[in-house]
Specification:
Elements lengths: L5 E10 L2 E11 L4 E5 L6 H8 L7 E6 L2 E2 L4 H7 E4 L11 H11 L4 H14 L15 H12 L6 E5 L7 H16 L3 E6 L2 H7 L2 E6 L2 E6 L1 H5 L5 E7 L2 H7 L8 E3 L4 E6 L2 H15 L3 E7 L3 H9 L13 E2 L14 E2 L5
Parallel strand pairs: 3-8, 3-9, 6-7, 7-8
Antiparallel strand pairs: 1-2, 1-4, 4-5, 9-10, 10-16, 11-13, 11-14, 12-13, 14-15
Length: 341
C-alpha cells in the first residue's frame, strides 16, 4: 500500500490556554476526496492553516507528499494549493489576465504561460469570458477562476476551505463535477465544509471534527450506519389532520407544520407503517403519504456533536415503502473515538 498523500498524527495546537486541536489523526490517499466536517469552532480552519504551513503545530507530525510541514515548509508549498471560502481574484483584470499573472508569479517558463492559461480557461469553461473583467462574472464563474488559479502550478494536493459558500445550487453542483474530475486525474482533495449534502455526495471519506478531536471517520454510508434505527414520515392533508396524527398512540419525534408531516422513530419500519395506516384509517385521518426515512449525515452530526450544522444543502431523502420489509443497516466499519452521545 502506498504512503498517504496527507498524513497527520497527534496534531495539537493551542492559542494561549485554549486548545483548538487535541491529538488529531488523519490519513488521505492520493486521488482521494476527503471531507472534514465540523461545527464552527471545531478546529477546521486551524487544521487547514497547519496543513498549508501558515501555522506551526505545538505537537504531532504532519506530512504532505512526504514533506514535513515544519521542517520542509517550502517543499510543502510547492505541492499544495489552497482555495478559501471566497474567490481571491483581481476583479479589475480579465479571467485570462488573472491566470497569466499567477502563472508568472509561480515562475512558469514564459514560453508556457499562454498555453497553460488557455488550457485552464478551456477546462473550466471560461474561454468565452476570458477577456471580460472578472467583476462582470457570476459567483460561480468567479469561483471557477479561483479554482483554475489554484491549478496553475499543477499541485498534487488541493485544499478547499468551504469552497461553495455563497454559491447557488447549480453553481455548487457544477463545482462538485470539477472536483470529481480533479480527483480522477490523481489530485488529492481535502475539503472542509458545513454543507452535509456536499460531503455526502462528493467525499470518498469523511472525518467529523468536534472540540478539536476527530470523533468519527468513514464513508458516508459507514457513518450513517452508526446511527441506529430509522424513521417513518407521515404526510397529511391539512393542519387538523396533523394535530390528529399526534394522538394516534405512537411516539412522535418531529412535527413539520410547514410541510404537514410527522416523524415517528422505529426499528421495524414495515410494522410501523402498517400501524400508522391502520390507526389513521380507524380515526379517519386523511394521510397523503407514508415513507421510510433512513439516517442522514445530519442525524450523524447531531449524534456525534450534539448539534446540527448551520447549513444543509438539501432536504433529507426518504425511501417510499414497498411490500417487502426494508433491511436494517449492516454493522459499520466506520471508526469512532468518542462514540455516540
Amino acid at each position: 500500500m502506498s504512503d498517504p498523500m496527507i498524513d497527520v498524527r497527534g496534531l495539537t495546537r493551542s492559542y494561549g490556554d485554549h486548545a483548538v486541536l487535541r491529538g488529531v489523526d488523519l490519513s488521505v490517499r492520493r486521488g482521494e476526496i476527503f471531507a472534514l466536517l465540523g461545527p464552527n469552532g471545531a478546529g477546521k480552519t486551524t487544521a487547514v492553516n497547519v496543513l498549508t504551513t501558515l501555522v506551526r503545530p505545538d505537537a504531532g507530525t504532519v506530512t504532505i507528499a512526504g514533506h514535513d510541514v515544519v521542517r520542509q515548509a517550502a517543499r510543502v508549498r510547492e505541492v499544495i494549493a489552497l482555495t478559501g471560502q471566497y474567490a481571491s481574484v483581481d476583479e479589475f483584470q480579465t479571467g485570462e489576465e488573472n491566470l497569466a499573472m499567477m502563472a508568472t508569479l509561480a515562475h512558469l517558463p514564459r514560453s508556457t504561460v499562454k498555453a497553460r492559461t488557455a488550457a485552464l480557461l478551456d477546462r473550466f469553461d471560461l474561454t468565452d469570458a476570458a477577456r471580460r473583467r472578472v467583476e462582470t462574472y457570476s459567483g460561480g464563474m468567479r469561483r471557477r477562476v479561483d479554482l483554475a488559479i489554484s491549478l496553475v502550478a499543477n499541485p498534487q494536493v488541493l485544499i478547499l476551505d468551504e469552497p461553495t459558500t455563497g454559491l447557488d445550487p447549480q453553481s455548487r453542483s457544477e463545482l462538485w463535477d470539477v472536483v470529481r474530475e480533479l480527483a480522477a486525474d490523481g489530485i488529492t482533495v481535502l475539503l472542509t465544509t458545513q454543507y452535509l449534502e456536499e460531503a455526502d455526495r462528493l467525499a470518498d471519506t469523511i472525518a467529523v471534527l468536534d472540540g478539536g478531536r476527530v470523533v468519527a471517520r468513514g464513508t458516508a454510508s459507514e457513518l450513517k450506519a452508526l446511527v441506529p434505527g430509522q424513521h417513518v414520515r407521515v404526510d397529511v392533508e391539512d393542519s387538523h389532520a396533523l394535530a390528529s396524527v399526534q394522538k394516534i398512540g405512537l411516539e412522535i419525534s418531529g412535527i413539520d407544520e410547514k410541510d404537514l408531516a410527522a416523524t415517528i422513530p422505529t426499528t421495524e419500519p414495515l410494522r410501523t407503517v402498517r400501524d400508522v395506516l391502520a390507526r389513521a384509517d380507524e380515526q379517519g385521518i386523511p394521510v397523503t403519504g407514508v415513507s421510510v426515512v433512513k439516517p442522514s449525515l445530519d442525524d450523524v452530526f447531531l449524534a456525534l456533536t450534539g448539534s446540527r450544522t448551520a447549513r444543509t444543502a438539501g432536504p433529507r431523502r426518504s425511501t417510499p415503502t414497498t411490500p417487502s420489509a426494508p433491511t436494517q443497516p449492516a454493522a459499520s466499519p466506520a471508526t469512532t473515538k468518542a462514540g455516540l452521545r
